Amino acid sequence: MSNLVPHLCFKYKHPLSLRSLWLLGFMCFGWLNPANSNPLPNFVAQSQQSIAPEIFQHCRFTGQRCLQHVDRFLLAADPGSIYWYELMLLKLDSLFILQRDAQLYALTSKLVLKTDSPSSFQARLYIYHAKVLYGQQDRPNAKLYLQRATALLTDLNQAMPNPLTELRLINVKLYSDGDYQSGYQQLRQLETKLIKSRDAVLKYDLYNNLGHFTYYLQRH
């Protein structure tokens, strides 16, 4: 799957449905590609580190293969550990990729009740939950969870400024408030800030998102 992501993000020129834009946006950000997941922290137990490469290999290629294996790793992990959250994100990613909306909704509905999860996990969880709510035509609650995700990403970016977090924040705002002109201007400002950056992946994400906002501005 990882080899297809750049091709899809760069080559896709046809009008996109909202669901396709969600999927493409997540793929371009690496949110759906487990191969882009951060390495496990050093403080994760050694026994968990020893099995981590196996599950990440399963989840690297297909969502179906990931779902076939991830639950047994979740059962073996300490609930609430960093490792557990990494595994749960892999499961959420896979359910989303496979468009298993009923399963995704059932899972996110339980997880959003948990209030002590890491902010970075909660932000992604709220986005997934908003997505399935939107699919159910529950726009008010979808917007509510997008707003919560926006607030978390804002706090994360203020606490530890990061261009990728800022980019994700702007992207989420595209769906939460529909202010395409404002989002476009923010992306152009970020482009100016990153003019000397040599981070090719970050710039790749930036210009893909500029393309998305330009597409929306042309339609409205």
Helical content (DSSP H or I, runs of 4+): over 70%
Order of helices and strands: HHHHHHHHHHH
| Sheet with the most strands, sense and barrel status | none
> N-to-C terminal Cα separation, in Å?
33 Å
Radius of gyration: 17 Å
* Proportion of residues in β-strands: under 5%
The chain-level structural class is: mainly alpha
According to DSSP, the number of beta strands is 0
Inertia-based shape: globular
Low-confidence regions: 1-22, 26-51
Please give the count of helices: 11
The chain-level mean pLDDT equals 76
What does this protein structure show overall?
By secondary structure, this protein is mainly alpha-helical. The chain has eleven helices and no strands. The longest helix is centred in the last third of the chain and has 21 residues. The protein is globular and about 45 Å long. The chain starts with a helix and ends with a helix.
Blueprint of the fold:
Layout: H1 4-11, H2 18-29, H3 46-61, H4 63-76, H5 82-97, H6 101-111, H7 119-135, H8 139-159, H9 163-176, H10 180-193, H11 200-219
Features:
single chain, 11 helices
Give a summary of the structure in a few sentences.
74% of the residues lie in helices and 0% in strands. It is mainly alpha-helical and 220 residues long.
